[in-house]
Design a protein that fits this description.
It is a single chain. The chain is elongated, with a radius of gyration of 21 Å. It is 26% helix and 41% strand. A hairpin with a 7-residue loop joins strand 14 and strand 15. The longest helix is centred in the last third of the chain and has 17 residues, at 306-322. The chain has an eight-stranded antiparallel β-sheet. An eight-stranded antiparallel β-sheet has the order 9-10-16-15-14-13-12-11. It has two domains: 3-163, START domain (Alpha-D-Glucose-1,6-Bisphosphate, Chain A, domain 4); 169-322, Alpha-D-Glucose-1,6-Bisphosphate, Chain A, domain 4 (2-Layer Sandwich). It has 324 residues and is of the alpha+beta class. It has helices at 25-33, 35-38, 133-141, 144-152, 155-160, 162-167, 191-199, 201-207, 295-302, 306-322, and strands at 3-9, 14-21, 49-54, 61-67, 73-84, 88-96, 109-118, 121-129, 172-175, 180-187, 214-220, 228-235, 241-252, 256-263, 271-280, 283-291. Residues 23-159, 190-319 form the Activator of Hsp90 ATPase homologue 1/2-like C-terminal domain. Belongs to the AHA1 family. InterPro entries: ASHA1/2-like_C, START-like_dom_sf.
Length: 324
């Protein structure tokens, strides 16, 4: 059990949890930044978590839900108030409805997570600030302390599983719901470099080339919300081709962009694509959360080999753009 102390301070209206780990600070930090890892321990064992959004950046947000043994869902959110990469972050933590809206009949809290090196590895100090003594007692009565203890008891296994963590450097996908898919890839470069490579036409043409034997024939980039983009490809020396089009809905450089996307000329609704970039010890964790209209559409597109195609593009990004 990594927890070494739990201290309730009725005067300051805080709950402080200290936990020690036999891994470097960078490894512990990465476990909290990567949605694939934090969802393995944030919820108690009987209530595993699923993160549908996880933007670890100032002004960012996380949306998650925990699923109970009977299928009941409990939703929550974080609003990131401050982030110091590799050292600390502060969030507003609250309960949410199934639509992700804050629950007005439940209290929200402020939480700080501080990471520091120790002779044995690393220490995480979590301080929860409550709005009143009554709220503190209410949430403790609901089992908050026991839930945190049970959840953090799972972290050691995640931190020790370095083999699967290293394997996750390649592009992978997880099904988050009937309509949501999360695509993840660690790219060996800075957040700023990866953002630039996604938003400068000259760089995009170097790595987003499409299938072997194809070339990018059009690269119209959207940089301001409300603008539209168009990426087109054609066979080298031929006329066959296709294009992806969409609108930039939100942009928070260099951490997050939200777009719609559809195949030009194809029937059916567009997908919603949420790109998030976060610094980790190996480089930058790139996360795409794609929302489809239905499960059939989701599975049909995944079956085209989309993930392997994305891996080829990201490998090209590393070798031909970041490695040059």
């Amino acid at each position: 059990m990594p927890i070494t102390s739990v201290t309730k301070d009725p005067e300051k209206v805080t709950l402080t949890v200290v936990a020690d780990f036999a891994v470097p600070v960078t490894r512990l930090w990465d476990a909290y930044v990567d949605p694939r890892q934090i969802e393995k321990f944030w919820g108690p064992p009987q209530w595993p978590a699923t993160f549908t959004r996880h933007d670890v950046a100032p002004g960012g947000r996380s949306d998650y839900y925990m699923t109970g043994p009977d299928g009941e869902e409990s939703h929550g959110y974080w609003k990131f108030l401050t982030v110091t990469d590799g050292e600390s972050f502060e969030v507003e933590d609250g309960f949410a409805t199934n639509d992700g809206e804050p629950k007005t009949d439940m209290p929200s809290m402020r939480m700080t997570f501080s990471f520091e090196a120790t002779p044995q590895g690393s220490r995480l100090t979590t301080i929860t600030y409550f709005n009143s003594a009554e709220e503190l007692e209410k949430l403790l009565a609901m089992g908050m302390q026991e839930g945190m203890t049970a959840a953090m008891g799972q972290i050691d296994d995640i931190l020790a599983d370095l083999t699967s963590y290293a394997a996750s450097l390649a592009t992978s996908h997880q099904l988050l719901s009937d309509t949501k898919v999360r695509i993840s890839r660690i790219i060996r470069g800075s957040v700023e470099q990866i953002w630039k490579a996604h938003h400068e036409p000259a760089l995009l043409r170097r790595w987003l080339k499409g299938p072997d034997g194809w070339e990018m024939s059009d690269c119209q980039v959207a940089t301001t919300p409300g603008e539209h983009y168009r990426y087109a490809w054609r066979q080298e020396g031929g006329n066959a081709g296709f294009a992806l089009i969409g609108e930039l809905l939100a942009a928070e450089p260099p951490y997050r962009a939200v777009t719609t996307e559809s195949m030009e000329g194809a029937p059916g609704p567009a997908t919603l694509n949420e790109l998030t970039l976060a610094p980790v010890s190996e480089g930058t964790l790139l996360t795409f959360v794609i929302t489809y209209d239905n499960a059939e559409m989701r599975d049909m597109i995944l079956d085209t080999g989309m993930v392997s195609g994305m891996e080829a593009s990201y490998a090209r990004l590393e070798s031909e753009v970041l490695g040059s």
